[in-house]
């Protein structure tokens, strides 16, 4: 093997998996699971079909985390199963536990009989009070980045793509949904049994399941919403532009390859805004603003059907290939469906967030092709892969011109479809296509600097919005005491302008000034989660006691980590705030997802030291 090949192999190595796909590779998973809400566990089996890249390999290593492994069988060429030896290795707090299975010569599959544990990091079990209907329990999975292993024993690396089938048994009054195709129930099948197929090979972090009192509302021929009965209609109205969004991406980058595109609206404890599970995006209910103002999240998760799900980061170091491309495509969708001004406002807000974060990140974490060694990927994710990634693509677009860049992206998705690729693969492809056709691009865009250096290059095309200039002027007039809140010309402002306004206010504001704003604009009562969140941040920063009740209510009901984290971080800055943060967390904890709870515990622990 030549030196160049070594580097290639090395960059493909996944720090976050114990698996041995180079020797033996899982290609298909057949799940058979019982969902028990009483025991809060999934129990059953996973049949793993294997390929043997190394002919003499005799062991399969898969990832697990806190799984109870009951027994393992190997399937011989005749299709007969017999017990085979297995061993659980030492546990690592981040990676979990390797499971090594002896695979006899000639065996093409193994079947692992197992159950999940109560603390499974990829599962959240909700009691009825945490749902909108309050009558039934709810379960959902969140496998990205490395939590699939906490509910399925598999080679949990984005470089190991699998197809899958699943049979899921639930209490008969509940329904299971997955990021896969639902097989219609045939007569005579027992109630509560749900079957799914995913025929396209996907990375394991996209395997997803939810169980609850769910019903479906169609939006177009191929799009619809799953949600609890009280939410589904509202969600279908909020997301009614989904079909137009799909058509917008298809006309830019080629056809949608996954059949249906549905959304599942989860209970509010869902720790993310959205998760791009194939065929079925999982979404927080906090984007149901009533006026479609927060649907860029749908654009984002839909965009992942190309960037991420079709062309996938091979390792978590290459995460920017998923998210940077997706934010870029998201913005193109917003532009196509809602117009250039809306897209520019959203991009401007995003760049603002990036700049705030860059100011406090250490240089090594400001790099697109980031070094993650030793860290839990759940804690390593920042706006850098997202927004800096998007800005890099915007610079390429500006240098190439839109038509050439659109054609490049279209061919990129086609070329790498259903593959998991590294940053090096992308750079090589860029060089061989766009840069070869137009060498001037490489002179205008500092590609190596974007990929490997901290911060932002001195020059890049910066999104800016005219609609924000007026907002800044009004914020300035009010801040300078030149205008009262009631005189601010805000009648026509949209959500993005309100967010910009709130961010443009001075850091320090006294009680009277905050009360004036709240009386005139009613921020504390805002039904828009982003506006309310921005307002609560200001309230906490200025110890504005009027908002205490709202703050506590928000922290008790919403589990979205992007909202919780900054609020707790702001709270713990003062001794009184820290006491409140601890009190609220103690009460709220049981309702938080394990990922969100771990984040908040880190924040509270750090102050103690
Ligand atoms: N794939 C991500 C969510 C994710 C990333 C989960 C890493 C676990 C690990 C998803 O597409 C995403 O980026 N969601 C964002 C919303 C988006 C509009 C920026 C979120 O959840 O806030
Ligand atoms: Zn994303």
Provide the low-confidence segments as ranges: 1-7
User: Largest sheet, described in full?
Assistant: 8 strands, mixed
Q: Strand order across the biggest sheet?
A: 5-4-8-2-1-11-14-13
Helicity range: 25-40%
Strand fraction band?
Answer: 15-25%
Structural class designation: alpha+beta
Shape: globular
Task: Give every kind of bound small molecule, once each.
Answer: ligand BES, zinc ion
The total count of strands amounts to: 22
Topology (elements, then pairings):
Layout lengths: L2 H10 L12 E12 L4 E11 L7 E6 L3 E8 L5 E3 L2 E3 L8 E6 L6 E7 L7 E4 L11 E4 L20 E8 L5 E4 L2 E3 L9 E10 L6 E4 L2 E4 L4 E5 L1 H10 L3 H12 L7 E5 L8 E2 L4 E4 L12 H8 L7 E3 L5 H20 L1 H19 L18 H4 L2 H18 L1 H14 L3 E3 L1 H15 L2 H5 L2 H6 L13 H14 L15 H10 L6 H11 L7 H13 L6 H10 L3 H11 L3 H14 L5 H15 L1
Parallel strand pairs: 1-11, 17-18, 18-20, 21-22
Antiparallel strand pairs: 1-2, 2-8, 3-7, 4-5, 4-8, 6-7, 9-10, 10-15, 11-14, 12-15, 13-14, 16-17, 19-20
Helix pairs in contact: 3-4, 3-5, 4-5, 5-6, 5-8, 6-8, 6-14, 8-9, 9-10, 13-14, 14-16, 16-17, 16-18, 17-19, 18-20
Bound molecules: ligand BES and zinc ion.
Summarize the structure.
The protein contains 20 helices and 22 strands. The protein is α+β, with helices and mostly antiparallel strands and 609 residues long.
Would you kindly provide a written description of the structure presented here, covering whatever features stand out?
The chain is α+β, with helices and mostly antiparallel strands and 609 residues long. Helix content is 39%, strand content 20%. The protein has an 8-stranded mixed beta sheet with strand order 5-4-8-2-1-11-14-13, with no helix packed on it. A hairpin with a 4-residue loop joins β1 (25-36) and β2. α4 packs across α5, α16 packs parallel to α18 (561-571) and α17 (548-557) packs parallel to α19. It is globular, with a radius of gyration of 25 Å. The two termini are 49 Å apart. Mean pLDDT is 96; it is low at 1-7.
């Amino acid at each position: 093997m030549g030196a160049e090949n070594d580097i290639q192999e090395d960059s493909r190595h996944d720090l976050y998996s114990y698996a041995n796909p180079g020797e033996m590779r899982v290609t298909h998973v057949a799940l058979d699971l019982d969902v028990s809400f009483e025991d809060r566990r999934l129990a059953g089996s996973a049949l793993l079909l294997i390929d043997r890249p190394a002919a003499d390999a005799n062991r399969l290593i898969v990832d697990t985390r806190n799984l109870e492994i009951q027994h393992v069988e190997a399937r011989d060429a005749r299709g007969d199963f017999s017990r085979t030896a297995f061993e659980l290795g030492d546990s690592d707090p981040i990676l979990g536990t390797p499971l090594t299975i002896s695979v006899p010569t000639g065996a093409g599959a193994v079947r692992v009989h197992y159950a999940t544990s109560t603390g499974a990091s990829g599962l959240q079990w909700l009691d009825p009070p945490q749902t909108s209907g309050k009558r039934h329990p709810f379960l959902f999975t969140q496998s990205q980045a490395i939590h699939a292993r906490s509910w399925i024993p598999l080679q949990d690396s984005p470089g190991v793509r699998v197809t899958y089938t699943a049979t899921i048994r639930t209490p008969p009054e509940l329904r299971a949904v997955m990021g896969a195709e639902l097989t219609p129930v045939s007569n005579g099948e027992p109630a509560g049994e749900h079957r799914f197929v995913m025929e396209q090979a996907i990375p394991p972090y996209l395997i997803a399941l939810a169980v609850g009192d769910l019903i479906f509302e169609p939006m177009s021929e191929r799009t619809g919403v799953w949600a609890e009965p009280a939410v589904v209609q509202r969600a279908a109205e909020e997301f009614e532009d989904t079909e137009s969004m799909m058509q917008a991406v298809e006309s830019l980058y080629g056809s949608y390859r996954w059949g249906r595109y549905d959304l599942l609206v989860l209970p509010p404890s869902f720790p993310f805004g959205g998760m791009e599970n194939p065929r079925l995006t999982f979404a927080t209910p906090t984007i149901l603003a009533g006026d479609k103002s927060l649907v860029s999240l749908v654009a984002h998760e839909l965009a992942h059907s190309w960037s991420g799900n079709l062309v996938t980061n091979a390792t978590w170091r290459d995460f920017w290939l998923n998210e940077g491309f997706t934010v870029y495509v998201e913005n193109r969708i917003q532009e196509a469906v809602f117009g250039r001004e809306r897209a520019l406002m959203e991009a401007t807000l995003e760049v603002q967030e990036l700049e705030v974060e860059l100011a406090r990140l250490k240089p090594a974490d400001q790099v697109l092709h980031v070094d993650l060694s030793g860290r839990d990927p759940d804690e390593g994710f920042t706006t850098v892969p997202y927004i800096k990634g998007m800005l890099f693509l915007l610079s390429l677009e500006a240098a190439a011109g839109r038509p050439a860049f659109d054609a490049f992206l279209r061919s990129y998705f086609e070329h790498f479809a259903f593959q998991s690729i590294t940053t090096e693969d992308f750079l090589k492809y860029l060089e061989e296509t766009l840069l070869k056709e137009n060498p001037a691009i490489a002179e205008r865009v500092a590609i190596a600097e974007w990929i490997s250096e901290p911060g932002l290059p001195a020059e890049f095309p910066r999104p800016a919005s005219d609609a924000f200039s007026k907002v800044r002027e009004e914020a300035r007039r009010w801040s300078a005491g030149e205008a009262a809140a009631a005189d601010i010309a805000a009648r026509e402002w949209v959500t993005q302008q309100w967010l910009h306004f709130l961010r443009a206010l001075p850091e320090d504001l006294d009680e009277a000034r905050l009360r004036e704003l709240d009386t005139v604009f009613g921020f504390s009562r805002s039904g828009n989660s982003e506006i309310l969140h921005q307002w609560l941040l200001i309230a906490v920063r200025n110890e504005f006691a009027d908002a205490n009740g709202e703050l506590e209510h928000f922290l008790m009901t919403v589990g979205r980590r992007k909202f919780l984290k900054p609020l707790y971080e702001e709270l713990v800055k003062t001794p009184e705030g820290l006491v409140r943060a601890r009190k609220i967390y103690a009460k709220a904890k049981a309702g938080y997802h394990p990922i969100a709870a771990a984040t908040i515990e880190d924040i509270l622990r750090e102050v103690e030291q």
